[in-house]
Amino acid sequence: MKLIKFDVIDSTNTYLKTNYESLDNLTVVTSEHQTNGKGRLGRTWVDEDDLLFSILIKENIEKPTDYSFLIGAVLVKVLSNYNPKIKWPNDIIINDKKCIGILLEGVTKEKQECVIIGVGINVNTTKFPEDLLFKATSLRNESNKRIDKESLLEKIIEEFINEYSDYKNKKSNYLNIVRNNFYLDNKDISFLYNNKEEKGNVQGIDDEGNLIVKTNDKILYLNSGEVTLSNIYKK
Ligand code: BTN
Asked: Residue 215 has what DSSP assignment?
């Protein structure tokens, strides 16, 4: 495993997308700040005192979406003190607020070349913009302690390497870890399905990683690549 550090870069994901050919499997890139941090759905990721990193995967990439769950399982293990929950497919929630965003990207030519797992953790940020006040939190806000980002990254990488090696050997129980720390269980959600807004109740995650949702008249198995969750209704 090789760690590349920057003070400032446009985006750690973009760096790996551009340079993956000359880099080894499991290269990790981290930066203190990003000038063009990318979020999901074309959004930007604005950072303050966050831990930002991306992991390059070049082997065992037959099913890229597995890595959303694998990194989710790693993060809930490392941050277990905070009681984190995984919101399918990609966010990590603490105390009903988003603390971690994950952006999975890939490069595909004739075949899939690599998978890039981008992670942004709100670590020591204490103030969030008005519109995020009730939606976002940081590890520091949840613990009242300043956290050492370097040692946190070390722990995450160590755990990721273990979990990845179990995954390669088909020994990892990452999907069960996700199920046991799942934010959406039994929640009512709305989502876009075949361009239509639908509503349903979340029943769990199947063995392929699909979200099982019960609507009025049917059971749907939602694939993370095809579906956008638009809302969660609190009961
Ligand atoms: C989201 O919740 O929308 C995903 C956010 C992912 C942000 C991380 S920060 C490190 C890596 N580099 C990027 O440009 N994005 C990801």
From this structure: -
Residue 208: how many other CB atoms lie within 10 Å: 11
Q: Which atom of ligand 1 is nearest to the CA of 91?
A: 2
**Confidence label for 200 from pLDDT (cuts 50, 70 and 90):** very high
Q: Ligand 1 — pocket residues by CB below 6 A?
A: 11-13, 34, 37-40, 43, 45, 52, 54, 91, 101-103, 118-120
CA distance 133 to 135: 6
The model's pTM is: 0.94
pLDDT given for residue 225 in this prediction:
65
Over residues 2-47, the pLDDT tens digits come to 999 999 999 999 999 999 999 999 999 999 999 999 998 888 888 8
Four-CA torsion 69, 71, 72, 77, nearest 10 degrees: 130
Atom of ligand 1 at shortest distance to CA of 36? Answer: 14
Side chain identity, residue 56: L
Q: State the angle between helix axes of 66-78 and 149-168 in degrees (0 to 180), rounded to the nearest 10.
A: 130
Render the burial of 25-57: b for 16+ CB within 10 Å, e for the rest: bbbbbbbeebeebbeeeeeebebebbbbbbbbb
For residue 162, the CA-to-ligand 1 centroid distance in Å is: 23
pLDDT single digits (tens) 114-124: 999 999 999 99
- Ligand 1: centre distance to CA 215 (Å): 31
Nearest CA to ligand 1 atom 7: 120
